[in-house]
Amino acid sequence: MAKALNPQGSGAMRGSMNGLTYSNYHGIHVIKRKPMPVRRLRTTQPTNRARIGYLSREWGQISEANRVLWRIWASNHPQPDGFGGTFLMTGINGFTQLNVRHMMSQSIATPYDSPPVSDLAVGMMTLVAIDGIGPGQITLNWTLLGTGLAGDKAEVGLSGPFTSPGVYDGSGSYAVQAYVAGNILTSVLTGLSPGAWYWFRVRYVQDDGQVSAYLVVQWQAPVV
Q1: What digits encode the pLDDT tens for the residues 181-207?
Q2: 55-103: per-residue pLDDT in tens?
Q3: Domain match, 215 and 129 both
Q4: To which H or E segment does residue 111 belong?
Q5: Has residue 12 been placed in a domain?
Q6: Which structural domain, as residue segments, surrounds residue 69?
Q7: CA distance 66 to 194
Q8: Could you give the residue ranges of the DSSP H alpha helices within the chain?
Q9: How far are the Cα atoms of 62, 83, 130, 198 from residue 79, in angstroms, in the given order?
């Protein structure tokens, strides 16, 4: 039987080798690789699923009167749909959305049975990034529209590092770095890669789970 030298460089190769599958599609030599599954135990996915499952069970335990209140709240608070429009949540969607934010920002496991009685009173006005005192350090400063309360939070998120200022993942691939008390207007982040570009975003999270719009700023970690 003849042996092929450098089979991976041959357009006639078929089959799988080293995680790659070689085939021919309409006369074109094709090399494919199956995507590697996400190691979910190393992500926030298990915690998020557990939290949503818990809230789903809690929805079944609250009174019908409260469920009606959540349906009314959801119908009066349309949400952005990602395409420039809005959509209306169901009552359980509103209950879950606000309580997930409430539980994450407050680091507690007790949800609110009833919806907020008033709308968000505080918003984000400005966000500025300032070089820290050492390499890979940044100070974020922001101002609020309204009065921040110690019982609320400012959520600080980070996306990066990137090699260029023109790189931006608009899919929302931000990781929450800190929850800062709502009456504090600054946050210091460390351990960033010198010379790399980052995107930061901050929003105000009211204790009941209502949130302001994000403010976003780009910054390059200085090389000292």
Answers
A1: 999 999 999 999 989 999 999 999 999
A2: 999 999 999 999 999 999 999 999 988 788 999 999 999 999 999 999 9
A3: yes
A4: none
A5: no
A6: 40-106
A7: 51
A8: 45-59, 64-75, 91-106
A9: 24, 11, 33, 28
